[in-house]
Amino acid sequence: MAKIGRTKEFIREMIQSIFDEERIPNPEADEYVNDKSNFVGSHTYGENIGKLDKMYVAYSYGEQHPLYVWVELEEFKNLRPHDSYLVKNKTPNKKHKDIKKKKGIWFYNEQPYYVSDKKGHLKPNKWTKKHLEDLKPNDKIQARDTQYLKKLISDFKKKYNIRSNVHTNLKPGEK
User: Fold this and answer.
1) Cα 109 vs. chain centroid, distance in angstroms?
2) Looking at the chain, which terminus has fewer C-beta neighbours within 10 angstroms, N or C?
3) pLDDT score of 37
4) Alpha-carbon distance 166 to 164, whole Å?
5) Of 15, 45, 51, which Cα lies nearest the Cα of 135?
């Protein structure tokens, strides 16, 4: 038993040295998300993509399921000109005014993350729903589906020639 404990501790130290980050409890991760700071939680991580301060993403289990995406306003206008109504104040809608005053716009993933059960049937991962609650930023956020968020992230990475995130994907069950 002692050998297993030493092995787990060694693995934790290796992960911390690779990311130069200490794992934090997910209920405390909202502070990191609010600050748009890199973190590694339990089955979650947040990253300033490309260290450019133009896009921040908090993930559950990896790049296949972004939970929250923050995009700098000018960057968003360039990446999604067809969605520019979100930041232009053409109508007297309070939500649009609030967004225009801020330097960026937050989105959250409105779709659950599906995993296979022992019989091979897809079911929503209950922990991803908890991650969504734990990592929620304080600012106003808008719902989008997984495909929209992944496309937004992909377009940003292509624009800046960013090949991959600093953090690695975590499969359900890994920490």
Assistant:
1) 9
2) N
3) 95
4) 7
5) 45
Q: What's the CA gap between 80 and 126, in Å, rounded?
A: 31
Contact yes or no for 39/24 (Cβ under 8 A): yes
What does the pLDDT average to over 156-170?
A: 84
Beta carbons within 10 angstroms of residue 39's beta carbon:
23
Helix H or strand E encompassing 150:
helix 146-159
Looking at per-residue confidence, does 165 or 33 come out higher? 33
The answer to whether the CB of 44 falls within 8 A of the CB of 152 is: no
Measure Cα distances from 53 to 10, 18, 49, 102, 116 in Å. Answer: 33, 22, 7, 14, 35
Q: Contact, 61 vs 169, CB < 8 A?
A: yes
Reading the block at residue 107, the tokens are: 């989105």
Region for residue 64 given its phi and psi (left: phi exceeds 0; alpha: psi -120 to 50; beta: otherwise): alpha
Q: What is the pLDDT of residues 85-129, one digit of tens each?
A: 766 544 444 544 444 456 999 999 999 999 999 999 999 999 999
Question: Measuring CA to CA, how many Å separate 88 from each of 14, 31, 73, 81, 120?
Answer: 47, 29, 10, 11, 46
Measured between its terminal Cα atoms, the distance across the chain in Å is: 20
Name the pairing type of β-strands 55-60 and 66-72: antiparallel
